[in-house]
Design goal:
Elements: H1 3-22, E1 29-41, E2 45-46, E3 49-50, E4 54-66, E5 72-85, E6 88-105, E7 109-126, E8 135-149, E9 154-168, E10 174-190
Length: 193
C-alpha cells in the first residue's frame, strides 16, 4: 500500500475523534415564567358602542426554549383571568405559541420581544346586554419581557403585551378587540448556553 493511501486511511480513522472534541452542544437554555397577570378588555358591544372596559386579574405561565439559536426561541404561554363584580361574571383563558427574540442581555438586565398566536376562551356566566357570548377566538399577541436578574438563574420579569382577539358579536358579526395584559413574576432559567 502506498504511503499516501495509508495516511489518508489513518486520517479518516481519527477524524471522528477530532469531530467529537470540537463539537459544540446546541443551545439548551430554557426559561420558565410564572406570575400574576392583569388585563383590561371590552366585554361586549351594545348599540354600536363598546361596553366599558373592565379589569380582569389572574395568572400567566410560559416556557421558552432557546434550543437551536442563542437569541431566537420558541415560547408557549397559558394564562387565565376572571372577574365577578358589578354584573359581570366571566373567566377567560388564553393559549399562545410563537417566537421570541432576546434583543438585549447584560449582567443585570435582559429585554426580549415576543410574537405569539393562539386561541382565547371567553366564558361568561353572567354578562350585561350586548356582552360577548361564550366562544373560542383567534388571538394574536406581541410584547416585551423585561428581566431584572436576581441571580444567575432567577430574574424578576415585567411583561407588557398587546393582544388582538377576534370576537363573535351577538348580531352575528365579528370584531377585533384589543386586550392589554400586564404580567409580573419570576423567570427561572435551566440549562446553559
Amino acid at each position: 500500500m502506498s504511503t499516501i493511501l495509508r495516511q489518508a486511511l489513518a486520517l479518516l480513522a481519527i477524524a471522528p475523534a477530532f469531530a467529537q472534541t470540537s463539537y459544540r452542544a446546541p443551545n439548551l437554555k430554557t426559561e420558565v415564567f410564572g406570575g400574576f397577570s392583569t388585563t383590561a378588555m371590552e366585554p361586549g358591544r351594545a348599540g354600536g358602542k363598546g361596553l366599558e372596559r373592565v379589569r380582569l386579574n389572574g395568572w400567566t405561565v410560559s416556557a421558552t426554549t432557546y434550543q437551536f439559536f442563542r437569541r431566537w426561541g420558541l415560547t408557549t404561554e397559558l394564562s387565565g383571568h376572571s372577574r365577578d363584580k358589578l354584573g359581570l361574571d366571566v373567566s377567560t383563558q388564553t393559549y399562545l405559541f410563537g417566537g421570541t427574540y432576546r434583543s438585549f442581555e447584560r449582567k443585570k438586565l435582559a429585554l426580549t420581544g415576543r410574537i405569539l398566536a393562539g386561541t382565547n376562551r371567553w366564558d361568561p356566566s353572567v354578562f350585561p346586554a350586548g356582552g360577548y357570548r361564550k366562544q373560542n377566538s383567534f388571538t394574536f399577541s406581541f410584547g416585551q419581557s423585561i428581566d431584572v436578574k436576581l441571580s444567575e438563574r432567577v430574574a424578576f420579569r415585567i411583561q407588557p403585551d398587546l393582544a388582538f382577539v377576534r370576537r363573535a358579536q351577538s348580531d352575528g358579526g365579528h370584531r377585533l378587540t384589543l386586550v392589554t395584559p400586564l404580567s409580573f413574576g419570576l423567570a427561572v432559567k435551566f440549562g446553559r448556553r
